[in-house]
Design a protein that fits this description.
Layout: E1 2-7, H1 14-23, E2 25-26, E3 31-34, E4 37-43, H2 48-62, E5 66-75, E6 85-93, E7 97-100, E8 103-106, E9 125-126, E10 140-145, H3 153-163, E11 167-169, H4 172-182, E12 186-195, H5 206-224
Parallel strand pairs: 1-4, 1-5, 5-12, 6-10, 10-11
Antiparallel strand pairs: 2-3, 3-4, 5-11, 6-9, 6-12, 7-8
Helix pairs in contact: 1-5, 2-4
The protein binds ligand LNDFFVEH.
Ligand LNDFFVEH is lined by residues 8, 46, 71-74, 146, 149, 168-171, 193-194, 196, 199, 201.
Length: 228
């Protein structure tokens, strides 16, 4: 099994890298062997541009059997606690399009993209989770990927009305696009660090979200490697 684990920033998967440093055989700066599982770690950068380029290059060269993206996210759902985990089954590109006076239109609305053109299902990038060696028991979430973190009532209402999202990140859609296009089974794991609201960074629980994210990531990778 060749597994890719990717994150936007090293901060988000530092405990996982520490686990690999202690529990696995280090092959190079970014490659490890854990039992019969070869693990590549890719810090792809924040945002869809960095993620798409890093992943596109990596998937073409390394051809992993599975890719796992781990990161923190904002939640639209107040009933989901900070630090709780989801796996994303549906991604929307929520701020790529055109402004028509005070209305936002995405690329499907203005007919530059057609619904269900590959690799889209309708207007979403959908993970069926087919081909994965294991699937954690986590809530499934619809996600929007944005370049501009949502922080106004108007934007939040627009996203909720249009996409009915549970969570928001800055990379998920690029990850889904790259994996669907390359035909590589994939899993996007997100831990909720904040609610999507008018920006107040003092309320974010990044250390808690990173802890729960990495506990789950380690557990999943141990399962894939046949260690639990
Ligand atoms: O200081 C800020 O305003 C700020 C805004 C968004 C993200 C950050 C980060 O430091 C984390 C980068 C990372 O986190 C993901 N993320 C987390 N929460 C959200 C969100 O509410 N909306 C979109 N992305 C979020 C994102 O995927 C970034 O890679 C700081």
């Amino acid at each position: 099994m060749k597994l890719l684990v990717t994150a936007a920033t090293i901060l988000e998967i530092k405990p996982f890298i520490t686990f690999l440093d202690h529990q696995s055989q280090r092959i190079s700066d970014t490659q490890y062997r854990l039992a019969n599982c070869y693990i590549d770690v890719l810090i792809a950068g924040i945002g869809m541009m960095h993620t798409a380029f890093s992943l596109g290059t990596h998937l073409a060269v390394r051809k992993p059997d599975m890719a796992l993206q781990a990161g923190i996210a904002g939640s639209f759902r107040r009933e989901w606690q900070l630090g709780s985990l989801v796996m994303v089954d549906r991604e929307y590109l929520a701020d790529l399009g055109a402004e028509d006076n005070d209305q936002f239109k995405d690329l499907f609305d203005i007919n530059l993209w057609q619904p269900s053109q590959p690799p889209f299902t309708g207007t979403a990038l959908v993970n069926t989770f087919a081909g994965l060696p294991c699937l954690p028991e986590l809530p499934r979430a619809t996600s929007v990927s944005v370049n501009l973190v949502s922080g106004s009532a108007q934007t939040i209402t627009r996203l909720e009305t249009r996409y009915m999202p549970d969570v928001e990140s800055m990379e998920g859609a690029a990850f889904h696009y790259a994996c669907l296009t390359s035909g590589i089974p994939f899993l996007q794991l997100r831990s909720i660090s904040n609610y999507v609201e008018i920006r107040d960074k003092s309320k974010w629980k990044i250390p808690l979200a990173i802890k729960t994210l990495n506990d789950e990531l380690i557990s999943i990778v141990q399962t894939i490697a046949g260690l639990s």
